[in-house]
Amino acid sequence: MLSIGEFSRLTHVSVKALRHYHDVDLLPPARIDPDSGYRFYATAQAPTAQLIRRFRDLGMPLDQVKAVLAATDPAARDELIADHLRSMERQLEQTQTAVASLRRLLEGGGPPALDIAFHNPTATTALTATARLAWSDVFQWLPDTLTDLRRRLGADAGLRGGPDGAFYSAELFESHIGEVTAFIPLTADAGLTGPAGRSGTTGATGETLPEGPMAVAVHNGPLRELDRTYAALGSFVAEQSLGSRTRTAIRENYLVGMFDTKDEHSLVTEVCWPVLSTRGEKESS
User: Of the residues 46, 77, 131, 188, which has the fewest C-beta atoms closer than 10 A?
Assistant: First the structure.
């Protein structure tokens, strides 16, 4: 038997971490003195402690570490580890993208040059779902909600009137808490049947998307870089004195979206900035 301090020196796991691992039943001590409450560990527990330390060095959450250690099937255990490694690879790719973007900004790379068009869509019926969300929750809510809307619409392509999209309220950008509406445009003969949609949403119904002129730019690539396209488009609207309807929700159309490709660099997103006037520019529907 080793005291917790001795075991800590043996395994390079801090006493504080060992106490926490005991509290969450990840690495209980081999013996607890009934009078003093001191924890004692067996030397045979050292390899387990070292495994935990290595998994934690890789950023694996404690519940996943516990699942790996508890797995009796080697194949199931290896899949848990592989799943975490795939998650790390995705995080690495995101970090590399963020670093490349930062370098461009530091090197004086301003907003990208864009081909900006003007659209003036008419009112369109759509299958929608709306929720009030924190900024950090949008990126999980949106794909889950669009998945539900797609399931409700069904596989008949003739019912779809355009690509998936979403409206983002001005409040969401300004306060990072606000209303988001996911939608799928419908054709005139699309029927609305099925369940009411995701818990926590208001809608999942057939509603009319707003009409009116918009300045439109196409963003190619990761959504994390979308702010650069927003900056370029918003600057254009301001500099051209187009009378931006700043309190009106901004629309995004996912021309090539998360359901079409696993490669984030292949994503194509249309950003639609509402304006009061196109100042004589040619409009298209």
Answer: 188
